[in-house]
Amino acid sequence: DDPYVVMPVRKSEIEGMTDEEIFVYVTTKYDYLLGEYTLTGNNTKTFSRMRPDTDYTIIAFGYKAGVMTTSEMDKVHFKTLPAGNPADCTFEFSCEPDVDCAFIQVTPSDKGQFYHWLVYPSYYTADDARNYLQMVIRDNYEGDVATFSSWELSLGTDSATAWDLYPETEYKVGAVVMDYDTGEFLSEVVFSE
Q: How many other C-beta atoms are found inside a 10 Å radius of the C-beta of residue 149?
C-alpha cells in the first residue's frame, strides 16, 4: 500500500527525457495536481480533460514525501481520438433552480470539444455572451488565454451550482465551443430554453 503517482502527460512535453528528468518536470510543473494523481492499492482511473487527437504518455512511479521511490518509471503511450467539427456540437442543459441559486448540468454532443458555459440574464444575445467572454479574457485574465482556458473551459459533461442569482429573475444557460489555445469561438453560442 505504498503511494504512487499515475498521471497523463502530453508525449511532446517529456519526449527524450530520462526518468529522473521526467520526475523533476512533473513534480515541478504539475505539483498542484500530484495529490489528485497519488494513489495507494489497486485502482482503476479515468483521466479527463485530455486534448483530442493528441499523443499522451501515462507515467507511473512510486512517490513519498517528494521522492521517487521506484527505480524506474512505467510508461504507456497512446493517442486520443479526434473530435468532430466544433460547429456541429450541440448542448443539452439541465437546470434545478432554487431561491438564489441553480444546479446546472451541461452535456455536449461531442465530448472532445472544449467549451465555456455560464448562466446569463435572459435578455443576453449570442453577441452579448461573446463580448462578455472576450472582456473576461482581456480584463480578468489580462489576455492570458492559456490561464483562461485551464480555469474556465469544460470538456465532457460538466455541472456546478450557480450562486448569487436574484430571486424571481429569469436566466438562461449559454454554451459555446472555444479553441483552447487561441480563445477563438468555434461554434455559435447555444442557449437553454
A: 19
Average pLDDT over residues 144-155: 94
Decide if pLDDT at 45 tops 90: no
- Three-state DSSP state, 48: coil
Q: Which long-range contacts link 162-166 to residues 24+ away (Cβ below 8 Å)? A: 162/101, 162/102, 162/103, 162/104, 162/119, 163/100, 163/101, 164/100, 164/101, 165/97, 165/100, 165/101, 165/102, 165/119, 166/100
DSSP 25-45: HHHHHTGGGHHHHEE-SS---
pLDDT band for position 103 (50/70/90)?
Answer: very high
Q: Which residues contact 28 (CB under 8 A, 6 or more apart)?
A: none
CA angle, corner 82, sides to 178 and 50, nearest 5?
65
Which cell numbers in the block locate residue 61?
A: 512511479
pLDDT confidence of residue 176: 98
Which residues neighbour 191 within 8 Å (Cβ) at sequence distance 6 or greater? 120, 124, 126, 172, 173, 174
